[in-house]
């Protein structure tokens, strides 16, 4: 089990740095301090290894969908776009607070941009559940929005949040200052305002209303 976990940690790191196509099973085995034969024995192929890495973070992925569904069921007709965005941001920041979690967010960003069919299959099977819930919720807030418009708004939110979480250290370099004590809370609030305004701008032509008016 220790060797298997070591492979998953090393694979998470390599997929995050190099993407699905660029990651090398030989390099992953080397960093995990196991033989390539043992890696293949446990996981079989690069595709199966990527699936296993994502499944090792299943708790976070399930929490996103569950938190959105709980919000929608506990406040039917009253939740807002801001509520949806705040759930998404909270879980993202909690994940990024851990080194392995930050690598996983980088992996997600890499895999979503990978044009290979294997990566697309992983996204469909492993990462799209929460996205579809988010899009459903957006359409409740904007009942006249098309499915395409709502899906596009989700992509704006997801891409912006992932980019910020994996690149936030650059903010402080660009600002030329050390992070303030309350940087995380400020960043979450600022990001929420930005994303909510972006969704409203993107879906504004669809006569936006929040769910309480639906």
Structure characterization notes:
The chain has 214 residues and is mostly helical. It folds into two domains: 2-53, Arc Repressor Mutant, subunit A; 57-213, Tetracycline Repressor, domain 2 (Orthogonal Bundle), CATH 1.10.357. Helix content is 79%, strand content 0%. The chain is built from ten helices and no strands. It is globular, with a radius of gyration of 19 Å. The termini are far apart. Residues 207-214 have low confidence and may be disordered.
Please give the structural blueprint.
Elements: H1 2-22, H2 25-32, H3 36-43, H4 46-55, H5 58-74, H6 81-96, H7 99-113, H8 117-141, H9 147-175, H10 183-203
Helix pairs in contact: 1-2, 1-4, 1-7, 4-8, 5-6, 5-8, 6-7, 6-9, 6-10, 7-9, 8-9, 9-10
**What is the H/E string?**
HHHHHHHHHH
Structural class: mainly alpha
In CATH terms, the superfamily of the largest domain is Tetracycline Repressor, domain 2
Give the count of structural domains. 2
The total beta strand count reads 0
Q: What keywords describe this structure?
A:
Tetracycline Repressor, domain 2, 2 domains, 79% helix, 0% strand, disordered C terminus
Question: Gist?
Answer:
With 214 residues, the protein is mostly helical.
């Amino acid at each position: 089990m220790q060797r298997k976990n070591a492979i998953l940690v090393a694979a998470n790191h390599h997929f995050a740095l190099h993407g699905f196509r660029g990651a090398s099973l030989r390099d992953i085995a080397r960093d995990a301090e196991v033989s390539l034969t043992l890696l293949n024995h446990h996981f079989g192929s690069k595709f199966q290894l990527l699936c296993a890495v994502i499944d090792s973070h299943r708790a976070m992925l399930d929490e996103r969908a569950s938190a959105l569904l709980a919000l929608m069921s506990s406040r039917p007709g009253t939740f807002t776009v801001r509520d949806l965005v705040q759930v998404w941001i909270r879980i993202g920041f909690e994940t990024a607070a851990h080194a392995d979690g930050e690598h996983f967010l980088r992996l997600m960003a890499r895999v979503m941009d990978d044009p290979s069919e294997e990566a697309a299959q992983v996204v469909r099977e492993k990462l799209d559940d929460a996205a579809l819930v988010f899009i459903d919720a957006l359409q409740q807030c904007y009942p006249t929005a098309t499915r395409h418009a709502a899906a596009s708004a989700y992509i704006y939110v997801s891409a912006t949040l992932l980019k910020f979480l994996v690149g936030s250290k650059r903010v402080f370099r660009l600002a030329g200052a050390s992070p303030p004590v309350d940087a995380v809370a400020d960043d979450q609030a600022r990001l929420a305002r930005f994303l909510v305004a972006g969704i409203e701008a993107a879906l504004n032509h669809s006569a936006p209303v929040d769910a309480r008016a639906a």
